[in-house]
Amino acid sequence: MKNKYLFVLMMLVCITIAGLGLTTAYEKQQDLAGTDDLKIVTSFYPMYIAAMNVIGDADGVQLENLSEPQTGCLHDYQLTPEDMKLLSTADVFVVNGGGIETFLADVAEEYPELTIIYASAGLELYEGNPHVWMNPELYAKQVHTIAHELSEVEVVEEELAAAFENNAHNYIAQIDVLVQQIVSLKGDTEGEPILSFHEAYGYVANAFGMTIVGEMDLDEERQISAGEVADMIQLIEEHDVELIFAEELYGKSMGDTIQAEVDAEVLYLDPITRGEYEATAYLKAMQNNIDLIHDAFHDHAGDSDHEHQ
Ligand SMILES: [Zn+2]
Asked: What pLDDT, on a 0 to 100 scale, did the predictor assign at position 284?
């Protein structure tokens, strides 16, 4: 009698083990049906460019971006069925974090197995603002975090992990060139009162040691009231603001309105939330931002800025 129960129990154990084996085999099959590549999906443009540089020309890695086409920051972005499908094939999902990806809870719920890398992990946000990539020094830290976390992913082998770390190291050296330019401009820019028409520029101002005295978040098409214009003009006069940071796409009409009223200069900076899908895209866009700020300070002095070389 006892032996019979034992036999049944053992049979059950065997069936369970066989079943587990089948499940494992089936999942692997599914992987192979697509490809063996490590598939990395990023949440939006600046994360894509960062990951692109970390991956470099490493073999066996696929990179795709989630939110395209889209025109601004990710705020309030809703995942499409295509996005969900893409994520179902991903090994790793690289996000900025800091609350800019409002859909993350859904992703974690739908794909509990998916590895999510938070590029902003460990960074202190400025007033809860998630646009950290706009300060090159913090962006470099994001790149480092992406590479480090990727190399820790279970399916990433040693050689690939080393390639990620090495690529990140080289990319960070290029970002450092930008950081040094900012440092060398700080003598002129520190304490400068700034009006910002895009939340992302808080980090630009921070990097240059400037002080944001007023902010409007124009990262989508919307009507601007006469009251808002009046408020901004009042701030400009109150703080002797000479420089305003705006984005060409959504800040141009406000910029024009303000410039018609007061003497402040509007700089149209790139929030680097969209652009070419090229490895050098961030470096180029940020260099251009730095050049605009440089010129704003150095052209004021006179007709020639040769002495400022
Ligand atoms: Zn934004």
From this structure: 98
The label of the residue with tokens 């053992």 reads 10
Q: How far apart, in Å, are the Cα atoms of 51 and each of 33, 54, 160, 174, 288?
A: 25, 5, 14, 15, 21
Between 44-48, 67-71, 79-83, the lowest mean confidence (pLDDT) is in: 67-71
DSSP state of 135: S
* CA 55 / ligand 1 centre spacing (Å): 26
218 confidence band (pLDDT: 50, 70, 90): confident
Q: Which CATH superfamily is domain 35-177 in?
A: Nitrogenase molybdenum iron protein domain (3.40.50.1980)
Give 300 Cα–ligand 1 centroid separation in angstroms: 30
Distance 124 CA to ligand 1 centre (A): 17
The answer to whether residue 221 scores a pLDDT higher than 80 is no
How far, in Å, from the CA of 20 to the mean position of ligand 1? 46
Is 70 exceeded by the pLDDT of residue 21?
no
Structure tokens at 223: 């009507």
State what percent of residues in the chain have pLDDT above 90.
72
Q: What is the CA(74)–ligand 1 centre distance, in A?
A: 7
Q: Where in the sequence of the chain do the CATH 3.40.50.1980 domains occur?
A: 35-177, 184-301
233: its two tokens: 């003009």
Q: What is the structure's pLDDT at 306?
A: 45
The mean pLDDT value for 172-181 works out to: 98
Backbone dihedral angles phi then psi of residue 242, each to the nearest 5 degrees = -110, -15
Considering the domain 184-301 in this protein, what is its CATH number? Answer: 3.40.50.1980
Question: How long is the chain?
Answer: 309
How many angstroms does the Cα of residue 95 sit away from the middle of ligand 1?
14
